[in-house]
Amino acid sequence: MKSTVSDHPAKPDLNSKEGDSRERLIASTRELLWSRGYIGTSPSAIQARSGVGQGSMYHHFKGKPELALAAIERNVEELMHVAESRFASQGTAIERISAYLHAPRDAMRGCQAGRLVQDPDVIASPELRKPLTDLFEFVRVQLAHILSTGIESGEFDQNLDPIATADMIASVIQGGYVLARVSRDTAPFNRAIAATIDMLKKRAELGQLQRTATF
């Protein structure tokens, strides 16, 4: 079953009176970066998709790197908002992490941020890389904090390493995207998410045993 994604940047409405040329350029670049990557996104492709001419494009942005940065920052802003809202949900640590893992995603298209990390030109640019670094650091820190809270409350066993587990969860999501894309099937992604939640539940069972043993 194919997943959907709530932060999918729709193709801009070229007839919209509200959409100015700058926003259409950013929206078009976001879509092209997701589908083609940074190297495969040319200024001419951005102009064709947005309906914005070369003169107007270079009026708003000095060049492709500056426009790409604006698009990446917009992606990161939205992805952080989605993650933050899921992490802030009510419930146990497992329930909050599960809410994040089950956020709508288009596994077949891959991660908007993760796909760019594989682009050598993006990684070579400190400016383009920074918002992506900030996003993944934010996710890992939030996951580690929730896991630490679960350990302190006795929900998880005391031997659980919150930082290593947070890294594992973040890696599962990105690896799930890769498996879904290469197999052209969302099943590997969904199985990876389910296995991660199952692992957390087993650590919660160990936590329950530890609490019982102290009584």
Question: What does this protein look like?
Answer:
By secondary structure, this protein is mostly helical. It has a domain at 71-214: Tetracycline Repressor, domain 2 (Orthogonal Bundle), CATH 1.10.357. The chain has 10 helices and no strands. Helix 1 (21-36) crosses helix 2, helix 4 packs antiparallel against helix 5 and helix 9 runs antiparallel to helix 10. The longest helix is centred in the middle third of the chain and has 28 residues, at 126-153.
Summarize the structure.
The chain is mostly helical and 215 residues long. The protein contains 10 helices and no strands.
Question: What's the SSE pattern?
Answer: HHHHHHHHHH
Overall mean confidence score, pLDDT: 90
Query: Could you give the distance between the termini?
Result: 46 Å
Which shape, going by the Cα principal axes? elongated
CATH topology of the domain at 71-214: Tetracycline Repressor, domain 2
Low-confidence stretches: 1-19
**How many extended strands?**
0
CATH architecture of the domain at 71-214: Orthogonal Bundle
SS strand fraction:
under 5%
Largest sheet properties: none
- Residue share in helix: 55-70%
Radius of gyration: 20 Å
Structural class: mainly alpha
Question: What are the salient characteristics of this protein?
Answer:
Homeodomain-like_sf, disordered N terminus, mainly alpha, Tetracycline Repressor, domain 2, 215 residues
